[in-house]
Design a protein that fits this description.
Blueprint (H helix, E strand, L loop, with lengths): L1 E8 L2 E10 L2 E6 L4 E8 L5 E3 L20 E2 L5 E2 L3 E4 L2 E4 L9 E2 L12 E7 L2 E10 L10 E10 L2 E10 L3 E2 L3 E2 L2 E2 L13 E4 L3 E5 L5 E6 L11 E2 L9 E5 L10 E4 L5 E7 L3 E5 L21 E6 L14 E2 L5 E11 L3
Antiparallel strand pairs: 1-2, 2-3, 3-4, 4-5, 6-16, 7-10, 8-9, 11-12, 12-13, 13-14, 14-28, 15-27, 17-26, 18-21, 18-23, 19-20, 19-22, 22-25, 23-24, 24-28, 25-26
């Protein structure tokens, strides 16, 4: 089941698509192909929000935090905002520290209004967002077709990223959903339990630019066993994790709120997850009168390990004509003990 509502905010017309399935209610937005809200039950069956959210629609326009939006054409930071394909150099805008490119910069998909279609079936609703990026309107080479396919089934959200191009270009898409399982942002996420199936992370320099790999053993970044997010030496997490095994049938990241009993398991075809615990929130007011302080949400940004444009250690995310970029991430919501 679904409903569609239209609004005007921040000088833009935006569309909300609310989808209802058993034990889950999700609202999507055509601007940024974003997720606006996710409601799931707690141990007592109470449906509450498990997503960080602004308290006004206008704050999503511009959205430098990229809150809950589709990230692309490239997620993460590109060193010096420049990359090379087949001997040709391409320069992007320097929107991070005035030196590097972050999350696509001015070309970001999170700042575009997508076309959409909706399909309802018994026990399944699919929302497909589509946009075309022209060579003349971006710094990336070529023309691309992007499809972001959201499929909602009982207790589950599946995201499929599909891209085609007519010129070799960079593609590394993700979603920037900030999760908080306490319900209506009742508390921060520091006492949530978290696990990430990764023995290594991408090492970062002072500008958050990838430099290589590092082991998580005996460091505050070791979440191979389920434990509270805030542990000894915790200063916040903003790190790309390289998954030990790429297997879409294995929960690569898990999050549990012991108080509400809610659990989130993350499955993906991608080889890496960037975990970010919202260490430096921007000055926006949040829904539910929640305090806009650090660690109110946590992201699991499934993607290729950032740095592949400059380091041979990682996969170089070049998409070529005739190829089809396809990756899938699934968020599964359950209740502990049920």
């Amino acid at each position: 089941m679904h409903s569609v509502n239209h609004y005007h905010a921040g000088g833009r017309d935006v569309t909300f698509i609310e989808v209802r399935q058993e034990n889950i209610r999700i609202t999507f937005m055509d601007y940024g192909a974003a997720i606006v809200s996710i409601f799931v039950p707690d141990k007592d069956g109470t449906m509450e929000s498990v997503l960080l959210a602004y308290d006004s629609l206008a704050q999503y326009i511009g959205n430098k935090r990229h809150l809950n939006a589709t990230i692309g054409p490239t997620a993460g930071r590109i060193k010096d905002a420049v990359f090379e394909i087949a001997g040709h150099e391409y320069r992007l805008d320097k929107n991070f520290e005035d030196k590097h490119n972050l999350h696509g910069g001015k070309d970001a998909l999170s700042y575009r209004t997508f076309d959409y279609s909706i399909m309802d079936e018994d026990g399944r609703t699919q929302v497909v967002f589509h946009t075309h990026m022209k060579r003349s309107e971006q710094n990336y080479p070529g023309n691309q077709e992007y499809r972001i396919v959201y499929t909602v089934t009982p207790g589950e959200l599946r995201i499929e990223f599909i891209v085609e191009t007519d010129t070799p270009t960079l593609v590394n898409l993700t979603n920037h959903a900030y999760f908080n399982l306490s319900g209506n942002l009742r508390s921060d996420i520091l006492e949530h339990q978290m696990r990430i199936r990764a023995s290594q992370v991408v090492a970062l320099d002072d500008d958050m630019i990838p430099t290589g790999l590092a082991d998580v053993a005996d460091t505050p970044l070791d979440y191979r066993a389920m434990r509270p997010i805030k542990g000894p030496g915790f200063r916040g997490v903003d790190q790309p994790y390289v998954l030990d095994v790429v297997d879409p049938h294995v929960a690569q990241a898990s999050l549990v709120d012991p108080v509400s009993g809610r659990r989130l398991d993350v499955y993906t075809t991608y080889p890496a997850i960037v975990c970010y615990t919202d260490n430096f929130p921007m000055p926006y007011s949040l829904l539910w009168d929640a305090p806009n302080r650090p660690h109110m949400g946590v992201c699991f940004e499934t993607q290729y390990a950032p740095g592949g444009t400059h380091l041979e250690t990682f996969y170089n995310p070049v998409l070529k004509p005739g190829e089809r970029y396809y990756h899938k991430t699934v968020f599964v919501f359950t209740v502990e003990g049920q």
